[in-house]
Amino acid sequence: MTPFNSTPIVWIAYANDAEAQSIMERIRDFSDPRLIDPVDLSEPDFLLSVGNHQSSWLLIDEDFSPLKPLQTIGRKASEAHEFFRCMLVGGTNIEDWPQGSIQMDTNTLSTTIIDRLRNESNVLRMMSSRVRHVRRLQNRS
């Protein structure tokens, strides 16, 4: 049995609670969605949950993307976990976020965001599985 959950965890930081709840409901079939409150952010808890999942995401809207605590936690999680990614929805400075972050236009439909999140999550799951398999083979010798 693997020590990691294969279902990706998706932390959602949206200023509009109704929109965040809607996205949570719609991504439950392929992920473990959770809300993150930038004001009451527990960095150790966040990093622990990211570390317990095979892959994980931080989905941020335009209103929360400029917040330094979210940028800092995104960078720390990205440095500590190779299969952690950030998805930014809206006009923000992508250079403030970890390398590999995905930026989507402000007017992107929620269906497009969810489809992209699902596809990227599948890619991360395959990459993670391959990397773990290669590492197991390397440890045999």
- Radius of gyration from the alpha-carbon trace, in angstroms: 15 Å
The succession of helices and strands, N to C, reads EHEHEHEEH
Quantity of strands, as a count = 5
Fraction of residues in helices? 40-55%
What class would the helix/strand composition place it in?
A: alpha/beta
List the uncertain runs.
Answer: none
Write the layout of secondary structure elements.
Blueprint: E1 9-13, H1 17-27, E2 32-35, H2 43-51, E3 56-60, H3 68-80, E4 84-89, E5 102-104, H4 110-140
Parallel strand pairs: 1-2, 1-3, 3-4, 4-5
Describe the structure.
Helix 2 runs parallel beside helix 3 (68-80). The chain has a five-stranded parallel sheet with strand order 2-1-3-4-5, sandwiched between helices. Helices cover 45% and strands 16% of the residues. It has helices at 17-27, 43-51, 68-80, 110-140; strands at 9-13, 32-35, 56-60, 84-89, 102-104. The chain is built from four helices and five strands.
Keywords:
141 residues; globular; 16% strand; 5 strands; alpha/beta; 5-stranded parallel beta sheet
Short description:
The protein has 141 residues and is an alpha/beta fold. The chain has helices at residues 17-27, 43-51, 68-80, 110-140, and strands at residues 9-13, 32-35, 56-60, 84-89, 102-104.
